[in-house]
Amino acid sequence: MKNGYFDSEKREFVITDMYPRRPLLNYLWNEEAVCETDQFGNGYAWMSIGTQRRKIEAGDRNLYIKDLDSGEYYSANRNYNRLPFDKHEAHVGLGYHTVLSEYKGISAELTLLVPEETPAVLYKVKVKNTTEGVKRLGVYFSLYPKPALSGHDSYGTGDYSDTLGGLLYSHDGFRLPNDYTKVFVGTVKAPDAYDVAPQRFIGSYSGNHAPIGVETDRLACDGTTFESNYIAALQFNVTLGAGEEFENYFCSFAARNEDECAEIRAKLLSDGAFEREMATQREIGEKTSSVITINTPDDYMNHQINVWLKRQVSLGKTWGRLYGKGFRDVCQDITAFVSFDPDLAKKRIMHALTYQYEDGNPIRMFEPNFRYPYNDGGAWIPSAVLSYLNESGDTSILDVELPYLVGDSYERASIEDSFIEEPYAAGKRRDSVLMHVRAAIDYLLGSRGEHNLVLWRGGDWNDSMNNVGLENKGESVWLSIATVKAINETQEILRIAGEGEELIGYYEDKKNELKKAIKTHGYNGKHYIYGINDKGTRIGDEDRIFLNPQSWSVLAGMDEKEDMLSAMAEVEKRLKCDWGYTQCSPSYLKGDPDIGRVSYFVKGVFENGSVYNHGVAFKIAADCILGEGERAYRTLKSISVDNPKNSDSGVEPYAVTNMLIGPDSPYLAGYAPMSWITGTAGWIYRAITEYMLGVKPTYKGLTLSPAMPRGWSGVTVTRRFRGETYNITFKASDRAYIVADGKEVGILPLSAAGSEHNVICNYVEK
Amino acid sequence: MKNGYFDSEKREFVITDMYPRRPLLNYLWNEEAVCETDQFGNGYAWMSIGTQRRKIEAGDRNLYIKDLDSGEYYSANRNYNRLPFDKHEAHVGLGYHTVLSEYKGISAELTLLVPEETPAVLYKVKVKNTTEGVKRLGVYFSLYPKPALSGHDSYGTGDYSDTLGGLLYSHDGFRLPNDYTKVFVGTVKAPDAYDVAPQRFIGSYSGNHAPIGVETDRLACDGTTFESNYIAALQFNVTLGAGEEFENYFCSFAARNEDECAEIRAKLLSDGAFEREMATQREIGEKTSSVITINTPDDYMNHQINVWLKRQVSLGKTWGRLYGKGFRDVCQDITAFVSFDPDLAKKRIMHALTYQYEDGNPIRMFEPNFRYPYNDGGAWIPSAVLSYLNESGDTSILDVELPYLVGDSYERASIEDSFIEEPYAAGKRRDSVLMHVRAAIDYLLGSRGEHNLVLWRGGDWNDSMNNVGLENKGESVWLSIATVKAINETQEILRIAGEGEELIGYYEDKKNELKKAIKTHGYNGKHYIYGINDKGTRIGDEDRIFLNPQSWSVLAGMDEKEDMLSAMAEVEKRLKCDWGYTQCSPSYLKGDPDIGRVSYFVKGVFENGSVYNHGVAFKIAADCILGEGERAYRTLKSISVDNPKNSDSGVEPYAVTNMLIGPDSPYLAGYAPMSWITGTAGWIYRAITEYMLGVKPTYKGLTLSPAMPRGWSGVTVTRRFRGETYNITFKASDRAYIVADGKEVGILPLSAAGSEHNVICNYVEK
Questions:
Q1: Are the beta carbons of A193 and B486 closer than 8 angstroms?
Q2: d(Cα B683, Cα B333) in Å, to the nearest integer?
Q3: What is the C-alpha to C-alpha distance for residues A231 and B603, in angstroms, rounded to an integer?
Q4: What distance in Å separates the CA atoms of residue A356 and residue B550, rounded to the nearest whole number?
């Protein structure tokens, strides 16, 4: 594998490439903090408690080692100066991250983790003399704490606190938006020297590659004030005999006062605390991983499903998109992580539904709140709720009463493209979750334009098509199709809830009405258009095709099969490239204010013609629904990091990216500047497990409807579901039928909790 | 002189210290752009046209030189790797900045300037082979352009444009706050290669000290997109025989479209354009410098007055405080630069007065507008207007009709500590400048509390005492004293305007009423207190003394001389330290919400107990008024960069700082983190010229009232004033009297424009 290898036993990816095309990122987090790290252990850390959000660290973390006899020094984790290290590895683990290096007889280890319950970063440092002689070393641990909560440098100080046993940074200002005015960097062992001022430790004219403080015998041991940046640098002078090692632990966190610093430090740096946290992280990872285990001929896919996609989805499950909790993003993530954490899924559904306005339309993003009037939020609710019902079999959620967000989405909408800092306020209306689902659908059905299609307003899934409907005239064909899908799901929920046929029939009529409008105004004879804007212009008609309306026509199960097949054939013809399928083609070449941001994006980038993988994942699912397992698999592999036709996309082998720059771009085509923060992870996870392997929960039990790639007979899947364990083997056969525990079945048996079932799923290879 | 030397002939300061305590800054600017540079030529550049404000550059500028035979390379201006250069000098000139270096037989020059009329930076580069042999060199010029106008990297591209002859960066987005969506870096000579992507030129894992692009034979010659940062790197391969040199010119600027890029580039890079701009800058500098020339025993002071303070004041004259135009700051700067640019002073007065609300109170800051309800703005208006009348003798300004800013300062005040992005809107009321002055005073007289002192509201000169009066109860003693001073000035304006004694008498009564209230409630028997806050607490009473109320009692000419003398004696006793006088003592140790920001500042920093030089400059003027010239001089030297007791404050020898960290700070005491951006420059300029040397313009003509340091007999001053030139010699004598052109006079004679007058000013040494 590019950049390193998977260690199945330890559930690690080991990065052996010190200088990949771009930094390979990893995230460590708990409910209140996130720590980013690359292959060097470098990145930021921040925390968020309620509405109080702040950075803890930003800038490089370093473990400098200096030979006190020769004066030579280097960063053991970062190797700025491209020295010929004997070894450099980053072990991307489940909830921890270790950087190992060896150089000139010194082995060094830097391990980071975010403990389960405290918003902090914990560090373990180990330096070992692997030579036969004695080594006199200076060991320096440094990081960049971020105490500032305002632009007033005058509020700030930093110094070592003997009482607290670490470096204390204060920013006790007037009218601050945050109570966490201290940042503390604690050390178990008392340092021989320290510094807090970058201009002394790094030097005003040097950089992290050559810190002048390390060149002196002893750090300044002084505090500082009025800095816009601080450093935490701790020096330990050690003499190590042959085979001896130095070990120490550090923590960094923000707190409200010194007492809190003392309390948190005591907890985090107590004896054995680091190892206990490591064990906890491993446990959490194992529990998540064991829900579904696959064994296919595609080793890389096995790693993805068994470990890594779950981890990426888990980041979203806690943090949304890090910059905030997009309503549609949260709903989609729920449909993926519900399989390994149904209790949390329930909690997240209930939380999200309180951000639905009283008119039924949800806010675009919460925490922080972003009120641009996107119109698609409600279309994502039914699938989230249904996925929970299907996974858990627990219908009690439907009766839970929840408030709506105060106001009306039309009144409260802000067309300013900016975030609204306003605390959550519940409206007067309260309803059961079931009624929240119906309110979402009723809103969409009521929000329609002159062609009877759903209004576009501020935009839909395509966030960047953000000026097509602000006059409340433009209509979205994609959103109309998504509404059809959402009504399907709502009808299923109503059936599970035991509602009568009258109500279900009411929605059936509405759905048919909508389908008719889509057929009449949204299908051009070859493919589905994207919509009709405020000015009446048809978008994505002959001149340009968009991916999502085509794939979603399949996901929604539109009536006309030949339309869908034609649409999907157009996708193959017009959107395919060597590294996937573009979101639209051709790209916009010129900004159009009646369309919005997407048309201003550079060609081939983001929603304007990139391979936008979230959309590609929808397409994979659609292929599977159409029985095109082989095409689905080829599509999956084309966007994958192991695609030989796009062999250096920059993506971490253990993560998926939202975007590969498209073929229309004259620059960086095929490159992925980002990863991790995307709903793509959840959809790829579901596309493989639920659509390709076809292991799909329903309210009555697990069903199997595979759309296998060619030659995959013999694939096995172990799935835990409502306390049962299913050991499933897929066999290519003349006839599709399922045998569970010796009997032919439709739905897999649900017996006493804790049973294990052996299942053979015979499928017909296409 | 520390860090380098003054070159009087070229009017340059030459920095010979490559690595001073902190970077030594210089600014280059015109009406629409500002370029910052340090001793290496590094800093940002930005532009502002109307309300459209944007960065052009940020990050290091570099002239890398690579020996193509050995492969060795370095930055000739920046020397990141501390190589043993034979020479490194920065020539801080009037409107240009040159960095010279010599290393291994190669001399290099990088000169920056901002042309007079275009918002751009111009660069000249020269590389010379000073050896006897032939040198094959790669010459690389690089800088960091800042095309981004939003967080959407998808809008961005950068590439070389053959048509335009340079590197073009675009950020053509949707709903941008700025029309200047292009940044262009032009070159006269076509490069051999180029790059725009930092990850290729610098490398994802390297830094400016070791750009990987320079290590290759040829830069990538490719464009890029979706970057959060771009670089402009241009490679020229040259073969230089003995004594031969390579010369080229570059420009960087923002523009609205490619046509505009072409047009501006053509103008800036035309033949001889750079040299013409250099000549223009020199001319501007000379014109400013020649207004007053002094020759005292203090060489450093001579340099300050003859050249550098004028330059620092000139930055403020155009750009306010760079982050915006503080009303009080603009008014104060006017009183200083009026001597060398009265026409502009008039323009600035007229502009500022349109930011006075309809109730007479001005806004705290404009462009951008900051509406926190500070109450002192009006107290600075009369001195600005009077200084213009005195310098120019032109009373026509008093009749100019100007609108007020729409609204009422109470209604429009925002106690949110934030900037209001709102375009200027004129109110209905229009008045003459004379009435604007009166409106300011009438506002202050009407804005009074229960002790008959002027209300504090959001604060006064002490910006950080910002929560003492928001309930409209707290009263400021300092502001009351400042109002007395402002009434003095207003009365003088009224006399110049020929207003009757009735009106002048009306203000006399009001002033006496105010003086009485100050004496009764604002003087504690030893010194003036600072004020009484909303809660009725007396601030700066026994426990703590503030500098400004004491010095301003002298500037305002309070009636009781013994009170002033006692107050100033307390200043000597309680506020003096080795590097000046602190703004208050003791510093606050704990935040007090009924006082505001100042009490939360770290002790010894900013208004909380630092040596805040703006205040020290007031004190120097006050000393002079009391005839304490020697004490004034000692005070001046204590805050000066040549104070041997504070020999490494960090300050540029050619600039003054607003703050030296005070003795109460446990860290960095005596250090000046900043400089340039301060009203201190104007007040030091005036304290020396008008108060110490006593060359003071009045409406009727120039007056002389020196308060000389001891032993300064023989000092000469040349002052241009209303077309006349006065060559003044100061002589210590038994009796104070002035002889001009052979006759004893009170006011210096004003004859035909263009006359030269020889003046002897006899003074009595104290």
A1: no
A2: 8
A3: 21
A4: 61
C-alpha dihedral (A630, A635, A638, A641), degrees to nearest 10: -100
| Cβ–Cβ below 8 Å for A602 and B155 | yes
CA distance B233 to B196: 6
Distance of alpha carbon B735 from alpha carbon B762, whole angstroms: 7
Count CB atoms within 10 A of the CB of residue A365: 25
C-alpha–C-alpha distance, residues B82 and A80, integer Å: 17
Instruction: Please state which of the ranges A152-166, A415-429, A526-540, B619-633 shows the lowest mean pLDDT.
Output: A415-429
Q: Which residues contact A48 (CB under 8 A, 6 or more apart)?
A: A32, A33, A54, A119, A367
* Region label for A568, one of left (φ > 0), alpha (ψ between -120 and 50) or beta (otherwise): alpha
Establish if A209 touches chain B: CB-CB under 8 angstroms: yes
pLDDT in tens, A178-224: 999 999 999 999 999 999 999 999 999 999 999 999 999 999 999 99
- Tokens 């399989």 correspond to A339
- Rounded to the nearest 10 degrees, the angle between the axes of helix A629-639 and helix A613-625 is 170
Q: Are the beta carbons of B121 and B159 closer than 8 angstroms? A: no
The token duo for B148 is 């981004």
Which among A759, A153, A141, A233 is positioned nearest to B602, based on CA atoms?
A153
Choose among A209, A222, A600: nearest Cβ to B209.
Answer: A209
Return the sign of the alpha-carbon dihedral for residues B526, B532, B538, B544. Answer: negative
Q: How many CA atoms lie within 13 A of B323 on its CB side?
A: 8
Instruction: Tell me the chain B residues in contact with residue A199 when contact means C-beta distances shorter than 8 Å.
Output: 22
Query: Which residue in the block uniquely carries the two structure tokens 């004695």?
Result: A134
B152 Cβ under 8 Å from any chain A Cβ? yes
3-state helix/strand/coil string of B69-136: CCCCEEECCCCCCCCCCCEEEEEECCCEEEEEEEECCEEEEEEEECCCCCCEEEEEEEEEECCCCCEE
Paired strand residues for A109: A100, A126
Contacts of A226 in chain B (CB under 8 A): 602, 605, 661, 668, 673
Domains and CATH numbers, chain B: 4-285 (2.70.98.40), 299-319+575-685 (no CATH), 697-763 (2.60.420.10)
Rounded to a whole number of angstroms, the CA Rg of chain B reads: 28
Strands (E), A452-548: 475-476, 531-532, 538-539, 545-546
**Residue A217: CB partners within 8 Å, gap ≥ 6?**
none
Give A152's contacts in chain B (Cβ within 8 Å). Answer: 597, 601
Q: How far off is chain A from B597, nearest CA to CA, in Å?
A: 5
Interface touch B605/A226, C-beta < 8 Å: yes
**Contact call for residues B625 and B691 (beta carbons, < 8 A):** yes
Distance CA A97, CA A86 (A): 20
CB contact under 8 A, A606 and B417: no
Half-sphere exposure of A397 (CA within 13 A, CB side): 29
pLDDT of residue A420: 67
Percentage of chain B with pLDDT > 90?
93
Cα distances from A252 to residues A58, A124, A360, A385, B591, in angstroms, run: 12, 12, 43, 39, 26
Summarised one tens digit per residue, pLDDT across range B524-560 is 999 999 999 999 999 999 999 999 999 999 999 998 8
Cis peptide before B368 (omega within 30 of 0): yes
Q: Which residue of B has its CA nearest to A650?
A: B204
A601 touches chain B (CB under 8 A): yes
Among residues of chain B, what percentage have pLDDT more than 70?
A: 99
The answer to whether the pTM exceeds 0.90 is yes
Count of beta carbons in the 10 Å neighbourhood of residue B760:
17
Q: How far is CA B751 from the centre of its chain?
A: 35
